[in-house]
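Late entry, evening session. Most of the bench is empty. Finally got around to the prediction I had been postponing all week. Sequence below, unchanged from the version circulated by S.P.
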Amino acid sequence: MNKTSDIVQPSLTKEELNIFLGKCKRDHVTWVSKVTDFVLMGKNDIDPTEVKDHTQCRLGKFLMTKGSESLKDHPDFDYLVNTVHPKLHRLGKEIFELKSRAETSFTREQVQTLHDELLDCSNHIIKLLDNMIR
């Protein structure tokens, strides 16, 4: 899914960076949609390998490379890297694990609360990426 050349470019032009961040947004929306379908409709199109930590998706890999150097001075960079992006992945993993268990020791309300938090994080990430693309 993620080509190495899409991730580790040491220096990107503004246009290349914008295109790349657009790809990250598309990946993000697709992943959040899969989690939402899983929560709301029980549709499990999520491969367990897709429920990764925040350093394993296209955006996370990029944020850990020198390719992200041009974004480090952006006022939202630290919040994206250290707070909202890791939280999104933690919530997605927690939702997947709760819903995948054979026993029903979780409540629907717990999953819905986690899902609401995930959607909130998702909206923040989209806004942050949009701000970085400008």
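Two things to note before I forget:
The radius of gyration is 15 Å.
Residues 54 and 86 are 5 Å apart (CA to CA).
Will write this up properly tomorrow.
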